[in-house]
Amino acid sequence: MFTKLEQLVQRYEELNSSLSDPKTIADNRLFQKLGKERSDLQELVEAYTRYKEIQKQLKENKEILEQENDPQMREMAKEEFVELEKKLQELEANLKILLLPKDPNDDKNIYLEIRAGTGGAGTPAAT
């Protein structure tokens, strides 16, 4: 899962640099295509970046717990550690959902017309 996420982050960075290229800006279709792809990856990349930040904070908190002698500081670090672990689990679940393939019909428009029905249970039965 994490190798896939790293690849997507790398692709996101490539898209950012491509979108700032004058050749890409001149080609309207390519610019729109790359912009859409970047937009599709943005939420996933932001969630993964947040995930990595929380992992780093957890590591720092662990070090504080191991090295700190002050009981108040240790207690604060324990509380924060528990909170960060919850956030990490939530983000991991969210990342799994974001990695699911999207339905190709999600971006399409739909027209739904609702009409009053005829027949059915509301009409008297013919004898």
Describe this structure in words.
The chain is mainly α and 127 residues long. It has four helices and no strands. Helix 1 packs across helix 3 and helix 3 runs antiparallel to helix 4. The longest helix is centred in the middle third of the chain and has 40 residues. The protein starts with a helix and ends in a 28-residue tail after the last helix. 4% of the residues are buried. The model has no long low-confidence stretch (mean pLDDT 83).
Q: Please give the oligomerization state of what you see.
A: single chain
Distance linking N and C termini? 65 Å
Helical segment tally? 4
As residue ranges, the low-confidence spans are none
Beta-strand residue fraction = under 5%
Shape: flat
Order of helices and strands: HHHH
Radius of gyration: 25 Å
TL;DR?
By secondary structure, this protein is an all-alpha fold. Helix content is 72%, strand content 0%.
Key phrases:
127 residues; mainly alpha; 4 helices; 72% helix
How does the SSE layout of this entry go?
Layout: H1 2-19, H2 22-26, H3 28-67, H4 71-99
